[in-house]
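User: Predict the structure for this protein chain, please.
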Amino acid sequence: MNPPDSNKDADPAVPGASEPTGDADPFDKLRAGSAVSLPQTELRDICDRLLDGDFSAEDRARLEGFVLGDAGLRRVYVEIMHQHAALRQNASRLGNVPLSEVLRTLPEPTVKVVHFHRWVLQIAAALALGLAIWWFAPRRVEKPLATLVETNGARWENSSLPTVPGSPLPAGRLRLESGVARLVFQSGAEVSLEGPAELELQGPNACFLHSGALTAHVPPQARGFAVATAHAQLIDHGTDFGISTDAGGQGQVQVLNGQVELRHEHSGETRMLATRESAAISADRLTQVHGVEGEPDQYAFLRPNAAPHPSTLMLTTAGGAGDAAYTVSPNSPIHNSDTLLLVKNSPSRNYHRRAYLRFDLAPLQERRVEEASLTLNFEATGFGYASLTGECTFAVYGLTDHAQDDWSADTLTWENAPAFSPDAGTVDTTRAVKLGAFTTPRGVVSGSFAIEGQALADFLNSDTTGRATLIVVRETSEPGSNSAVHGFAGNHHPTLAPPTLRLTLAEQ
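Assistant: Here is the predicted structure, written as structure tokens:
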């Protein structure tokens, strides 16, 4: 019978390393004054560096070789990490003594390591090694690439980066729905982003414009500032410039002052553009554009051969003979607003509200409306509880009894209002026609909501008086009277736009 092989788990790549037999303690030689083998000494030094934060990639590779390749060294590693865990639990008693010094001066352990099965010990050591490397490895800290300096009328949409002025910006995307945002890159390059736009920060002197427009001022120290789009890359040579692109990569560059280099990704073409020069970007090529001095058309690439667009007209209740008001059912003495038009459908006999909008149609000049939409800007009223408010459906009616168009906000009451109905969720349908509806989600009492469609356009085209009255009601009746009172901006709101009709008119 052959004798058992006591070194069958030894790592042949580590000379002199072998698994102790029986219940031998790996520190017995130290207590006996014997010299420690070179692999054990190196292993202890690597563990010291790991625990002190000086752990390198080479140390990691060497440690894995020791611990996973030799059972004896695994025992030493587990003992060291066990001692370190005990020290962490009593860290308050150790002051500022370096961990490596503490480990070297510890009393020798008196409890021997339990002899586990080799495969259990190997798994435990591997897990402990991975956890230790993760715990003590230096964490990657994202450095800011730019700072959001200021915003003007900015509205953001699902940006992955902070949107508060003064915020440092790491790598990520800014999605600006409207307004202007100015940011300064670490290099010193200043960028003004114009919504709607999406900009991705990629480096302290580089960004990717996914859509929208920006202008940039690049001081000498930021020379080389780069803006990429889907089909091209702009590299600054000390300049002021503007660049715009759509989501498909079609774009245009205008050099306001200085010089830029424009590289086309597909064709490999490169153009140098100087002051007052411009180029259009398409998927296939770059094209020189002339006539940008004075008023550059930043979105000319979107309509190179398009026919003239139909006219667009915006009308609000604050213009001309327009007006806006709301009525409240009798015996409702509280909760009024001078800036919001209130709407509610309550299960009780009190606190019903409807809103009335009148638009002056004189600017149409008898032109036909092809498309129409009505936008209402809601804001929390503070009346009732939004948390008790479910999903609500609002309906918009158009007044067909034009004899009632001449109402006044000063004299309008619940019962003398046009197309009156005692049911707060509807109107007298013999005097008005339903034009559309929209729904607000549960608990939502702010935001912009709209209706659009042919019914609204047809209603406006049927006008014979030059005025159009719309009535807004909440069809949904809440189960209790403590739900929120909805409100949207009227003619006197300090920040939100009043009810607005957006009309697309047929060409004359």
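The domain at 146-302 is CATH 2.60.120.1440 (Jelly Rolls).
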